[in-house]
Amino acid sequence: MNSSQTLDLVRVAVPVPLRRHFDYLSPLPLPAPGCRVEIPFGPQTLVGLVVDHPTESQVPRNKLKPLKRVLDSAPVLGPDILALMAWSAGYYQHPLGEVLPHALPVLVRKGEPAAYRELEFWFATEAGMAIDLNELKRAAKQQQALALLRKGPQTPSALKQEEIQSAALTALEKKGLLEKRSLEPSHDGDWATRFEPGEGLRLNGEQALAVAAVTSQSNKFGAFLLDGITGSGKTEVYLSILEPLLKAGKQALVMVPEIGLTPQTINRFRRRFNVPVVAMNSAMNDRERLDAWLACRDGGAAILIGTRSAVFTPFKDLGIIIIDEEHDGSFKQQDGFRYHARDLAVMRAHRAGIPILLGSATPSLETLHNARSGKYHHLSLTRRAGNAQTARQVILDIKNVRLQAGLSPQLEQLMAEHLAAGNQVMLFLNRRGYAPALICHQCGWSAACERCDAWYTWHQAGRRLHCHHCDSVRPLPHHCPECGSSELIGSGVGTEQLEQLLGTVFPQYPVVRIDRDNTRRKGELETHLGDIKAGKYKILIGTQMLAKGHHFPDVTLVGLLDVDGALFSADFRAAEKLAQLYTQVAGRAGRASKPGLVVLQSHHPEHALLQDLTQNGYGHFADTALKERRLLGLPPFSHQGLFRAEANGRDEVQLFLSRLADTLRSARYPQVQVLGPISGFMERKAGKFRMQLLVQGPSRAPLAQLLDWAVTELEGWPETKRVRWSLDIDPTELN
Predict the structure, then answer these.
(1) What is the number of domains present in the chain?
(2) What DSSP letter does each residue of 388-417 carry, written as one string?
């Protein structure tokens, strides 16, 4: 950098876990806030974001380093997203330098241009336009290619789909009839001028009221809970609300909890509206994500359908945010920057002055409380769409019943009846693998993970043992390491074992298993779901992946094999999660004109929670649960921050959190409780000892104040070199 240049100060957020910014010298004109800069940081060169132009620095000017390079002439993040990220960093007590990258696609974080890639197009030349096509009749492929390209330029991949190979194109190029040019793809927002909505379904009275309520407030902030039973036609309400907004040229952000829901949602939206719909999820490669991000930012995309991280995407003219299955735990990030996408989306809508719609058949108790207290508008859908009936629910007592791979004879009999009638059956078991543990039948030895307080799961596929907590894998032993016996058996039941059994009990009915293990590859889940809808499979086995939002019209029997574990959990949210899971899974039965049956196997059929759910439904359960939480002073009637800490030795963690607990108590915030330290749900994970400290108070402001002070204090503690700690604001999992 030339020393004769006039230099001034820029403040940069650097992607490192330090709760401060760094000042650098920059030539004039200064890069605007939201621009990326390459900076020297110790021995490394990093990409940071300009956040401010300070007049003074705490570091003497002669000690400041100059920027290496300015990467952007215009900001990659506008003031609205910068402000949202700064608010998020403050609220979730996380360094801004680590928060800002969440708003950028991976390629942009790495310093690549935030620009469209140029695509190669084939064009017909003047000579190519003028030539008589009959002159090429001996070369049929060349003739076909030129005829097509006379209508307009095409990319090589589009021509490939027309079965035109590169040899024919190269031959035409040599004759001077074609040429290849690089162009930016069109990304203008003129879709609104061509907007033509397709035919929607007829809305019933409840649906029409919900649409009218949101539409009447489309130009200001309002949070709406669409509380609709499974199969009540929530998606149709979303589509009807979007129609006038898209017509006015406004964009929409639609958030879904799982990647698996993206393809079916996209197809539904594309069928209805003739507008550009883009996706954003972790199954896409970096380039695809950047293209989608640019299309939203520049107005080329009308609708974005994305998972959790889509909440940070910039838009040219965002008109509404819709969150489908708002209760789902996947909206909460569980490591690093631990934000909740639903809560951030509400804040984003509030700041932008636009409506947000939260849809669920089983709303989270936080959202329900906000709706009941008048903070959110409460819209209800109590009837199933079309003429579908709510499924009948039965609890089977399996005490003293001989089970085969977790299946009772009664449920087997019911399956045989439903399958014989030509219907599909869905079985739900939230445990992957063949068996949750491997034990020796002779001496009782069990295969425990060396790095975690957990058992290895036995996977038949690949004959391996797999710890689902630290991801360690080892081959299946042939003999017991303790007594040498070869009688090694599985304890408990996983989805693989159930699949194997059903193949022998019902050999005439094809079975499909849907869990994390067999949907890893791109497009695998979509293929399976398409095959289920086409009737290729008659028996569906799944973990909670299958519980979410899928519509299977031929499923008439749903069986839940084992939910007893959740009835006696130490986590106060366990009952809510079980109630949501049960209601969602039950909602997959009898969604079309066929009546459905839901069967729940339990050793505790008399348990109050099961009785309440099956007899009175989720709404009644939620009322009771909210009353209990109010009495006990638990969220949503209080606010929490959870310090988690881990280290190589148990004593180190204990001493660190005990000192932190004393520090917090000494600050004398009378309403704030400090609970712990206690061991995590699993004390040792991946070789580290883990403990936690819960801080809770009835109002948010004093709690945030205290935590802010504590975080600043922790920065100076020498123990932090040996103990890794994190703070989770509004934790959803206390483990």
Answers:
(1) 5
(2) PPPPEEEEEE-TTPPPBTTB-HHHHHHHHH
Residues 6+ apart with CB under 8 A from 92: 99, 337, 338, 339, 729
Query: What are the C-alpha distances in Å from 370 to residues 222, 348, 626, 636, 678?
Result: 12, 17, 12, 9, 31
3-state secondary structure of 228: strand
Same domain? 150 vs 226: no
| pLDDT tens for each residue of 536-546 | 889 988 877 76
665, pLDDT greater than 90: yes
For residues 328 and 583, the answer to whether their CB atoms sit within 8 Å is no
Q: Which domain holds residue 696?
A: 639-729
3-state secondary structure 513-556: EECHHHCCCCCHHHHHHHHHHCCCCCEEEECHHHHCCCCCCCEE
| Residue 7 bridge partners (DSSP) | 27
128 and 105 inside one domain: no
Q: How buried is residue 489: exposed, middle or buried, by Cβ count under 10 Å (0-12/13-18/19+)?
A: exposed
Residue 636: is the preceding peptide bond cis (ω within 30°)?
yes
Query: What are the tokens at 546?
Result: 């299958």
Query: 22 and 92: one domain?
Result: yes
How far is it, in rounded angstroms, from Cα 611 to Cα 66? 68
For the segment 163-175, the average pLDDT, to the nearest whole number, is 87
Domain shared by 541 and 609, yes or no: yes
Q: Binning pLDDT at 50, 70 and 90, where does residue 548 land?
A: low
In a domain, residue 735? The reply is no
Q: Which two tokens stand for residue 520?
A: 């890893």
Residue at 190 is within a domain: no
Show the CA angle centred on residue 632, arms to residues 628 and 638, nearest 5°: 105
Ramachandran quadrant class, 111 (left: phi over 0; alpha: psi -120 to 50; beta: rest) = left
| Type of residue found at 268 | R
Alpha-carbon distance of 155 to 540, in angstroms, equals: 41
Q: Do 530 and 611 fall within a single domain?
A: yes
Residues 618 and 722 in one domain: no
Q: Is the pLDDT of residue 263 over 50?
A: yes
Percent of the chain with pLDDT over 70: 94
This prediction has a pTM of: 0.85
520 band by pLDDT with thresholds 50, 70 and 90: low
Inform me whether the pLDDT recorded for 1 exceeds 50.
Answer: no
Question: In whole angstroms, how large is the CA radius of gyration of the chain?
Answer: 29
Mean pLDDT of 358-371: 96
**What is the rounded CA–CA span in Å between residue 258 and residue 3?**
53
